[in-house]
Design a protein that fits this description.
heterodimer; A: 277 residues; mainly alpha; three-stranded mixed β-sheet; two-stranded antiparallel sheet; 10 helices; 46% helix; 7% strand; globular; B: 110 residues; mainly beta; four-stranded mixed β-sheet; four-stranded antiparallel β-sheet; 8 strands; elongated
Chain lengths: 277, 110
């Protein structure tokens, strides 16, 4: 297994040398993986999509048995109905995306040079609605946007995360996200990095802290089987838990963080709509 | 009529592993509003009886109540089941609403 990791890292190093010569993002990603490899020497990189589950056999077994017949299947079906329902002009969501919206979610968030900002998959859904003169959905509304995401992102299951940071403007957003990740905030004075970098794999109260690599691959999650959370909803909850002022979903700060955070999972397969504790 | 149930029935050896997910609100009827008053407009609505048969023979005759969660999940094993056997799951709730779904036992993919 270690050999496989070595080969993988060597290959990604080679790839990085050719594609991202002297670029910071790729070095950051590899530095993260290096750190986690020291913490979890026997875990292959592909297990990181399981997050903390990879560190607990009990939790993984529970996850496997729930995923055999997940209690949230009907929510995904509701999402499918939203996705396929035609707009007033006869088009639907699939018309807004290449390949009918299959295998696209791994390209998001992406930097849009025209808008000068990071565009998440949720925002591109709203852009699609606006382009077809429909009312955009509230990004923070789990009952509409969240449910739609449960299906829309699942269309990209198996796609490898493929975030690109091209050009100085995109790098600026990436850096902003990175700064957010390392900035301590809240009454508990934690940064994202405090838990998910330095303390990844350690136990906080009763919960194992997951590594940041792989975290961005499996959203939305159904916590406890029925509580739907998108990635940014989870960011907000994280902020509340460290007693910081929660920020708005779809805001610049969270979008930049998602850009940086998703980049760390580059090359890992997506799997949307999963169970989490 | 309620949404269809999801049934997964797989056989390994002579043991069938059955998993059933029912769609039902399972209201206890005991809801309070923000002021702490009982909501009269929320009558109890829950499954009372669950009957499961394998090739016509009853394997589960369950009495459910209001303490069972929303969208109940039921998992159990049946000994001596074969691939191709027919499993019928039906429930009746306190309003007399009924739902019955069938599944054919499949071999467990190895």
């Amino acid at each position: 297994m270690r050999f496989v990791i070595a080969v993988f890292v060597t290959l990604s190093l080679l790839a990085s040398a050719s594609l991202f010569a002297l670029s910071d993002p790729e070095q950051d990603r590899l530095a993260f993986i290096d750190l986690y490899k020291k913490k979890f020497p026997d875990k292959p990189l592909e297990d990181y999509v399981l997050g903390a589950l990879m560190l607990s056999n009990d939790a993984k077994e529970q996850y496997d048995s729930i995923m055999e017949l997940p209690p949230f299947i009907s929510v995904i079906e509701q999402g499918k109905a939203m996705w396929t329902k035609p707009f007033a002009n006869g088009k639907n969501f699939a018309d807004c995306f290449p390949n009918d919206g299959r295998m696209v979610a791994g390209d998001y968030p992406k930097f849009d040079a025209k808008l000068g900002r990071v565009v998440t998959f949720e925002m591109s859904i709203n852009q699609c609605l606006q382009a077809n003169s429909e009312t955009p959905l509230k990004i923070s509304d789990m009952k509409t946007m969240g449910v739609l995401m449960a299906y829309a992102r699942a269309l990209s299951d198996g796609m490898k995360m493929n975030i690109k940071v091209d050009g100085p403007e995109a790098l600026e957003k990436f850096e902003a996200g990175k700064r957010f990740f390392y900035t301590r905030r809240g009454q508990l004075n934690f940064a994202c990095a405090s838990c998910h970098m330095q303390n990844a794999g350690n136990t906080l109260r009763t919960e194992i802290l997951s590594p940041a690599v792989g975290q961005a691959t499996h959203w939305p999650v159904f916590r406890g089987g029925d509580n739907l959370n998108t990635l940014q909803a989870r960011y907000k909850r994280c902020l509340e838990q460290i007693r910081a002022v929660p920020l708005d979903l779809g805001g610049e700060d969270f979008n930049n963080l998602e850009y940086f955070h998703s980049y760390l999972s580059n090359g890992l397969p997506l799997k949307a709509s999963v169970y989490r504790k | 009529m309620a949404d269809p149930m999801k049934i997964r029935a797989q056989v390994a050896g002579d043991m069938a592993d059955i998993k059933i997910l029912m769609n039902h609100p399972m209201d206890t009827g005991r809801k309070k509003d923000a002021n702490g008053e009982w909501v009269i407009a929320s009558p109890p609505h829950f499954i009372q009886q669950v009957m499961i048969t394998l090739n016509g023979k009853t394997v589960v005759d369950g009495q459910f109540g209001s303490s069972v969660s929303k969208n109940p999940f039921l998992g159990f094993k049946i000994k001596g089941a074969k691939v191709g056997d027919e499993l019928v799951v039906s429930w009746t709730d306190n309003k007399g609403d009924q739902r019955s779904d069938k599944a054919v036992l499949e071999a467990k993919p190895s």
